[in-house]
Structure formats: C-alpha cells, structure tokens
Amino acid sequence: MKKLKKIESLSDQAFELLREAILNNVLEPGKLYSATEIGEWVGASRTPIREAAQQLANIGLVRVERNRGIRILPTSLKDLLESFQIRLMLEVPLVRKVAMIRTEDDLKALNTAYHNLFKAAEADDAKATLQADKEYHSALLKIAAVERALTIIDNTRNTVLLSGPSTIPHSRTCLEAFEDHQELHKAILNGDPDTAGKEMERHIINTARLLVTQESSSRENWNDTDILEQFSWIHK
C-alpha cells in the first residue's frame, strides 16, 4: 500500500488511500482491522486513521467498532438495490435537465467521454471500459450542475463497486455495455429530455438486473429478485 505524502492533511490522505483500497478489495469486506494495523500500512498515526475511518463510516464503507477496530462493510442485496433506487431517483431527472440546458461546449466534452468509452469497449479492455463508463456518467451529470446530487451518486456507485465483480465482462461484453449508452447519448445530443429520462431509467434498471442475477448465483441469502417490482414505486 502507498505511503502518505505530507502535502494535505494526513486524515484526508488516509481517507483517499483507504477508500481506494476498499473499492479495489485490498481490504477484505467483513474483516475487522485495528487502527494500528491500518496505520502501519499507510504510514500514519492512530489519530488521522480514526478521523479517516469516521469519514468512511459516514459514506457507508466501514463501521467503527469501539475498542475493537474498523470493520469493512460488505454490500448486501438490500444495499445494492437501494443504491440503484437512489440512482433512479436522481439520475433520471438530472439527465432530463441536461438535455434541456446542455451547451455546445458541454456536448464537446461529453462527446469526448463517449468516444473514450467506445475506444475502450472496442479494445475489449474491461478495466478501461469500466473507468470510461464512470467518466462518461460523470461528464454527463456534471452538466446538470447539482453538486450535492453528484456526491450522493458517486457514493452509491461505490456501493455497487463493493458488491464485487461488475457486469463487465461477466454478464455482458465491453461493446454491449457501450451500446447500452447509445440511445441515451443520442437523446442528449438531440436535446430530447423525455427520451433521455426514459433511456437513463432503462439503463439503470438493466444494469441492476444483470448484476443482481449474476451475483445471486454465488451469494448466500441473495435471491434472484424481481427487479421491476423493486423499482415499481419509482418508475412508471
């Protein structure tokens, strides 16, 4: 694990390093770590580690257990479904707004992100496709200029990452993942908010369905649940 650099607060650096380690499964979900143990890994004392742990607890990545340590929280089926529900509630209206307000400069930046997603998918590079997918969604939603919503969405996407393997390449190919964005992107270019909202809704529900079906086969206490039923109170 990387050592800390003394440029910003040690607790902020520790937060970023630990967040990255959790999302990349360097720290094992469900396992309890002592503050001393983690501090030795990242090169910090117990105080910044405790502060970083509290930040991580605030976004649902760990639980601080008094006099015991820091437990990395695994993602449950309930957590995963709630994450997709939150994405539906926020991202659908946000892309409607994006379709209505996007400028030519916005479209240039978005087209660049879309092209990068295509190139990664065309190369059949799963890791690069996942990163480009995240960057495309970030570029898209950034246009809406609702910062708090973007922070919430980023945290919910972290929950999905913690669920384990992504749908790429286990349930769909890189190109299939890219193609799942095509109609959404076209709607944004055309300035069509209704279609943009419907396509984002379809995209999120499709991703949820693929991931839950994929993970249900190997997880205890996970059922291959009816995704449409879980989201029926949100979408029409």
UniProtKB/TrEMBL annotation:
Residues annotated as domain HTH gntR-type: 8-75
UniProt-listed Pfam families: FCD, GntR
SUPFAM superfamilies: GntR ligand-binding domain-like, Winged helix' DNA-binding domain
Keyword line: DNA-binding, Transcription, Transcription regulation
GO molecular-function term, one example from the UniProt record: DNA binding
Top-level division of the source organism's lineage: Bacteria
Keyword tRNA processing: no
InterPro entries: GntR_C, TF_FadR/GntR_C, Tscrpt_reg_HTH_GntR, WH-like_DNA-bd_sf, WH_DNA-bd_sf
Gene3D superfamilies, per database record: GntR ligand-binding domain-like, Winged helix-like DNA-binding domain superfamily/Winged helix DNA-binding domain
Record-linked PANTHER family: TRANSCRIPTIONAL REGULATOR, GNTR FAMILY, UXU OPERON TRANSCRIPTIONAL REGULATOR
Protein name, as recorded: GntR family transcriptional regulator
Source organism phylogeny: Bacteria, Pseudomonadati, Pseudomonadota, Gammaproteobacteria, Cardiobacteriales
